[in-house]
Amino acid sequence: MVERATQPEGSQVAVEVWSDLGCPWCYVGHHRLRTAMAQRPDADRFDIRMRAFELNPNAPQEPEPVETAFIRTHGGTTAHFLRAERQIQALAHGEGLEFSLDRLSASTFDLHRVVQYAGDQGRGFEFFSDLQDGYFAGTLNPYDSDTLAGVAESAGLDGQRVREILAGDDYAERVRADRTEGLELGANGVPFVVLNRRVAAPGAQKVAGYGQLLEQAAAGPVPSERVP
Fold it and tell me: Record's SUPFAM superfamilies (predicted)?
């Protein structure tokens, strides 16, 4: 549940996005959300904040082919994996997005820790988007520390700081707290978007759907009430 609150006209709108790097629906949803925001004349009012949500907290640390991870998690065969992947691939291609079937899968906990750092520097959404775009395009391995540091530097972040984070446990509690808070707000999976703690959007909405949510969140004061 999300608590409604009043929204002063013209003020900033906090857009919290619970997501996981390897989630294909998050990949599609992020692009739709960005498109919906870009269509608004007041796009600069929306402050996107990435929130961590591991879909599989028990995923192995060592990267493996995404097919292997899919079959272990969902069961079935290579044919089942390819059918599911090609469906989302066709949808992504239809929206102008690259989507490689040759990807790796592993625990995303450390990636979320680095995204927390990026968020503290005001680069969370940009860094996450660059990382996810490259991952689904099949052009980078996000589980490689040098690659991760390079993407961070391209986003204006400190690559050495990224290496220090990966070598320690900084931001670990924040990553765990994000997932717990998302569950408390009603997230059963990701993407899960909450705008100004007034309206929530589970799943990858259409561009028009995100547009309606942005309009609702940007509106003036409304009566206090609870919404799912």
Answer: Thioredoxin-like (SSF52833)
* Structural domain count, the chain: 1
Global confidence as pTM: 0.90
43 pLDDT higher than 60: yes
Q: In percent, how much of the chain has pLDDT > 90? A: 89
Give just the sign of the alpha carbon dihedral 111, 187, 6, 210. Answer: positive
- CATH number of the domain bearing residue 116: 3.40.30.10
d(CA 24, CA 42): 28
Instruction: Find the helix or strand (DSSP H, E) in which 24 lies.
Output: helix 24-38
Domain that holds residue 45: 2-227
For 199, list phi and psi in degrees, rounded to 5.
Answer: -135, 145
How would you class 168 by CB atoms within 10 Å of its CB: exposed for 0-12, middle for 13-18, buried for 19 or more? Answer: exposed
Q: What is the DSSP string of 172-203?
A: HHHHHHHHHHHHHHT-SSS-EEEETTTEEEES
Residue 69: exposure state from Cβ atoms within 10 A (0-12, 13-18, ≥19): buried
Return the pLDDT at 228: 39
